[in-house]
Amino acid sequence: MMTGCGKFEDAILDLVYGELDDADAASLRTHAADCPACAAAVSEMSAMRRLSSQAVILTPPAAIDAVILGEARASAPVSDAARVIRPAVDDRPGFFDLLRAWLLHPAFSGAVVVALILTVTFFISEKATSPKVSPTSVETVIAERPLEIVGAAPAAENAEAEERSRDIKDQRDERNAKNEATPNSAVVTAEPETIAAPTESKQAAGTPSGKSGLASRRSKSAASGGAPARKPAASIPYSAPKGAPSSKSAGAGYTNTAPDGDVLGEAPAEMDDMADFAPPPAPTPAKKKSAYAEEAMSEESEALFPSPSQSAGAGASAPGSSDAYTRGMDAYRRGDCNTASAELAIVAASPSSYPGQVPSAVHHLARCEKRSGRCARAVNRYEDLINRYPAYSGRGDAMYEAASCYKRLGRTDKARSMLQLLETIPGWGDRAREAAAEL
Amino acid sequence: MAEFQQGSLPAFETLYGRYKTPVFAFLCRLCADRNLAEELQQETFLRVVRSKASYRFGAKFATWLYSIARNQVVDAKRREKFRKHKSLDQPVRESGTALMDRIADDGPSPDRDAVSKKLQEDLEKALAALPEDQREVFLLREYSGLKFQEIAEVTGAKEGTVKSRMRYAMEAMQASLSRYGDYARTLI
């Protein structure tokens, strides 16, 4: 029956036909995990859909097209060239006209500028490393920073900006005096933290006034012949990645560049570790909920597949002798069955060179064949593996997968025999019996 | 459709190209007669062209279109152009060919898997064996892609009724095609 337990009849139908929203679908799947009736209903409906999709495609004869399109043409009073929805002469302002008008409007321009500054500041603060910034390099870049990015600062902010500019200039002079005593001016210091508190708090808060003030300071510093000491974006304190060395000299690592091109100085070398961070694990493919569920079980068994050291006749593989095996297994895990097959075939053909790894190689060769839809070849490999390596720890998985292949090939007799044999292996009895019951 | 109402022929050509095959498949399987389906296909789209002014944007075009198509079938049925239910293997008096042959298009390719070919034949028989109300719901959902709510609008039934008919149809189809259970599991 396709009604399941009776509580979710309509929902099961909606689920199978994709009309259920994500939350309800998740709830139903959770219920189906504990309700065999609903799980069976979903499985049966899904199977029915797959069968229905095999129907012949019926296409109408071309003669009908001519009649219908002729009628459509006759019903249209104007020529094809003029059959457009818009009038020939369009008096309405077009999209680009409107866009141009908006962009030229002062209020809109100002809003865009403020938004840009906020975005850049936010991005810089997120990306900022330790405040190991060479004041000189920062000042130079600030001075060169194109003013048009900043735009016109509101008039009301200018007085405040001038005062901050003077403070920063004073501090810069003090710092320059200190640096003269230090040969390596690129050594990272904690100088940015000495900037006056009010400015620091404003900049940390990322207020628009701060940004406009920054622009104004730059313009004034450029006019005065020197760039003000710009408070780096690391006013939001930088925290090094976990496990990173606590101190690095500037010059190591790469140049940390803000997205707007502003050079914030040399980043500590630990930033390079970002490139080594492992990518997020690939999402595991959703396992189909089928009554037989053999594919899901196979995937589980693949995850538990024994390591080479557990293979039959295991001895430690000689150093340097497992290249083909390693390459083959890496390729298999990536889903590259062609490469995996080529490499693992080398292993399978050279038992003396790859002691202890041949059974695993043969098993994965069989899996590659199975994955590629070549069940006939896969069963040959499975049979070879099962017969030649009776002590192979993955023998149960191999038998189960072989039975699955036989089933696909329509050889239910062979599948049943394999499952009967599988029942004798400890831990496989229930699975084998369940699978055999579905044959 | 809006553009077609304004007089755009390319807009109608786009619509026609998109819907002509699924509508024809719906008519074919609902009528179980390809010749009749061709007639009704032509009538349906001519009606769309001639009634374009009456199309209201509140309704989805597909719903409107299939309503027209379904009404054509109902009208034809009233005119007794075809019998309600017929075995696909029995030859039709007019031509002597089996209905299955009259439904099928150019036929399966010679190298098609034997199981798949047999499945197609059994599938058409199973569809033809469904009661008409279940068959039209099944066809509209499975092959025309209409949602259950839209099917309810086309058929004039409640959505719950539509879903009940769909379940019954699927159960009947499953019973007819039970031998293909294993084969179904091999399909993606």
What does this structure look like?
- The complex is a heterodimer of chains A (439) and B (188).
- Chain A is mainly alpha-helical and 439 residues long.
- Chain A has helices spanning 9-16, 22-34, 36-52, 62-75, 95-104, 106-127, 135-144, 147-150, 158-179, 197-205, 208-224, 294-303, 323-334, 337-349, 358-371, 375-388, 395-408, 412-423, 429-437; strands spanning 255-257, 263-266.
- In chain A, 56% of the residues lie in helices and 2% in strands.
- Chain A has a two-stranded antiparallel ribbon.
- In chain A, β1 (255-257) and β2 (263-266) form a beta hairpin.
- Chain A is extended, with a radius of gyration of 35 Å.
- In chain A, 34% of the residues are buried.
- Mean pLDDT of chain A is 68; it is low at 137-156, 183-283 and 285-321.
- In chain B, 67% of the residues lie in helices and 0% in strands.
- With 188 residues, chain B is an all-alpha fold.
- Chain B is globular.
- The longest helix of chain B is centred in the first third of the chain and has 23 residues, at 9-31.
- Chains A and B meet through α1, α3 and α4 of A and α1, α2, α3, α6 and α9 of B.
